[in-house]
Specification:
homotetramer; Arc Repressor Mutant, subunit A; mainly alpha; DNA-binding
Chain lengths: 207, 207, 207, 207
DNA sequence: TATGAATGAGTATTCATTCAT
DNA sequence: TATGAATGAATACTCATTCAT
């Protein structure tokens, strides 16, 4: 048992260190942006040598991927929390969509991260099919409450899926616009447009 | 006349070479993506030494900017062409929005290019305020037909601007989804969703 | 004769252009210093293409050499002027030494230029033996009034030559010290030290 | 102890490698001169990739600065050694001045190095005020024995400082002359002139 | 598990010079 | 005489990654 316990403790310590590195990476990302988040910079922020990170992650891309993974986890938690507080299908739909929007509105670097790695999916090899499939899965699961609520409202599966895609698209489009400052061209506020969009969708489903 | 003609011919040749370099840059962009489009790579594709490009462009960023500029020009031409063929405000609105969408649907690298340089606007200094302001201007002008058509339909200025922003956002969001292959998650087609979105907007304005 | 006259005029024009380029080079040197005085920069200041300068000078080094040559000419003129105003051997000696010092005190870039090309003399090939010998000759001629005055005061040739070398060395040493700001370490003024040095030399010769 | 020993040995090895790079840099400096001493060239001479040097030095300028630092250290040691062997104030003054001269007479590249980095002090920002101030400090400390000896001889502080500056100036002036071969113009020997200069100064102080 | 050292490929840009026109 | 275009070599420096210790 003591040996076993030692092993378990070692694993826990290892897990902790991994997380400390990821936290450091997040900080670098937030402060320096995509371009500045080199492995060197992350290692330094974490108090490590670049070489040391390779004991915890296979490559820089793997580290990034894990960062995105955690980001998506946080996103899902955020959406789920909002949904759980709602008490009607309509409200669940609205809250899920708005929680999604707000999550990225508040931490724009997470959006950058998503764009960066999502784009990777286009390349022939991508980040590996497994990783790509996993990202898709996470995304689908996160947005699922929207489809669920729609179905509760009597909508067909097909239509529910469209709603998910539309909501995702509108939110990310508006966030992009807001995030790059371009939205000022139109003299409007992204959050307000998002609310309107969601209300319109609901109106259409329930009319 | 011979002297003049010589000068004129020289200018034309120079202009042509410039364009050949830009074409090479486009190809590199298409094949290698954002990261791979180094000055070296562009020069090689164009059959030049890196140093030679500096005779034609002030810097790598200047070359990129010109690439984007031409892309936006083509976008505007595409939208204008679609609008000119339409014969009613409703049709003009629809065709403008769909032309915008189709342009980027067909040449996804132009979307990347836009994202790349648009993002520059976020940095404190940006690529220079002038360039940033110019990008905004071009975008506003390109989407203007949408607002014009809406106003013809009796909509307030305020609402027309919202419509522009919403259309831009929805289109880019869907394109991002399509472009990265994520849209498959939802089992829907981006183009169809865009058409539906536009139709919904029109229905709302005209009901 | 018209042909001849045309040739002469052509030569004069050519000479003038050469000089305009050299003037431009001086300005660049003064404003940008040694490092900044690239051929490109000089050409631009002169209103030419870099390539055009090659019709007027064999190489960048040749242009620099000519610049130094003119600088030494101006130095000699400055010394000669001072000497011609003096009315005794002692005064000639003093004025020659001080004029030399003041020339470089006032235009430190000329000193830089001298250092730069003088140093070239060390390299195996140098700027070519001819050029090197010419520089030596110019320097000797410029300082000759010091030796002449010393001889007038009854000093041996040998001693007179020592005096020239010492004066040159002390002046350039002080100028270097002044020019790099190091003289502040000692809390003294270069010009005053130079005056003292000259007075000491004179005292020794005449005592 | 073994662990400690390992660390200590590692540090020693590291220090050694650093020094080997500096030695390589010195050689390049001696053979190729200022302009040729690029980071590439130094790395090659040391048997390294350019990138490897960045592990040992922060930048090319930092490497240069360390080279100069070691040179000044050697200079000071040389002067101190000479002074410690002298047994009277007059002798200390003479030996300090001549040791300074001889140091640079024997290794002219050290003089070049000094000129190169000293000149940095002229530029608005310099190599950083710290570095500049440090250079000044080292120089002052090195020449201090001259001032000390003069004060022992009953000279005022003010006059002692002048003597330091004059000695430095005369020595560097003569060295420049000798070093570039110009001194041949005057048919005299730099070392002899330096001895005479020092003797004259001593005569003046003690008469 | 972590480090120090090293690599090799890469970055944009500058330079003096050449040559056809 | 002058230009526009092009070259080839050079610059310092950064990057992700590897490996012996």
């Amino acid at each position: 048992m003591p040996a076993e316990g030692g092993t378990r403790r070692k694993k826990a310590v290892s897990e902790l260190k991994r997380q400390l590195i990821l936290d450091a990476a997040r900080r670098v990302f937030e402060n320096e942006g995509l371009e500045g988040a080199s492995l060197r910079a992350i290692a330094q922020e974490a108090g490590y040598t670049p070489a040391a990170l390779y004991f915890h992650f296979d490559s820089r891309e793997a580290l990034y991927a894990e960062l995105l993974s955690q980001s998506l986890e946080a996103l899902k938690a955020s959406v789920d929390r909002a949904v759980s507080k709602a008490d009607s299908p309509v409200d669940r739909l609205r809250q899920a969509a708005l929680a999604f929007f707000r999550f990225y509105e508040r931490s724009p670097r997470d959006l950058d991260l998503g764009f960066y790695l999502f784009r990777g999916g286009m390349t022939p090899e991508g980040l590996g099919r497994d990783r790509d499939a996993e990202l898709n899965q996470r995304l689908a699961v996160t947005l699922q409450p929207i489809a669920d609520a729609a179905i509760e409202l009597g909508v067909e599966m097909d239509q529910a899926r469209r709603l998910m895609a539309d909501t995702f698209a509108h939110a990310t489009g508006l966030l992009l616009l807001a995030h790059t400052g371009r939205i000022r061209i139109f003299g409007v506020a992204a959050a307000e447009l998002m609310r309107n969009f969601v209300d319109d969708q609901i109106a259409r489903l329930t009319e």
